[in-house]
Amino acid sequence: MESSDASAHSTQAREIKKPPYQQERLVEFLQLKAEIESLLEHLQSMKQQNSELSEELAVTERL
User: Fold this and answer.
1) What pTM did the predictor assign?
2) What are 15-50's pLDDT values in tens digits?
3) Which of 58, 62, 37, 16 is CA-nearest to residue 50?
4) How far apart are CA 39 and CA 55, in angstroms?
5) Which residue in 16, 11, 23, 33 sits closest to 3, CA to CA?
6) DSSP secondary structure code for residue 17 in this structure
7) Which helix (H) or strand (E) holds 45?
8) Residue spans with biased composition (Polar residues) (predicted)?
9) Domain limits of the chain?
10) What is d(CA 9, CA 4) in angstroms, rounded to the nearest whole number?
């Protein structure tokens, strides 16, 4: 059981001690991920607005 604990500990230590370029890549990835999520939210909002405007236009055309 101690060997598995030691193995888990060494794995954690390796993850913490990543080379700087890997950490930079991770930061870059997380920034891009956040930007993509923000753009997707904006797109969803625009789709909702478009849908609402289409409904209003349809009602207006019926009058």
Assistant:
1) 0.59
2) 667 788 899 999 999 999 999 999 999 999 999 999
3) 58
4) 24
5) 11
6) T
7) helix 20-62
8) 1-11
9) 19-62
10) 8
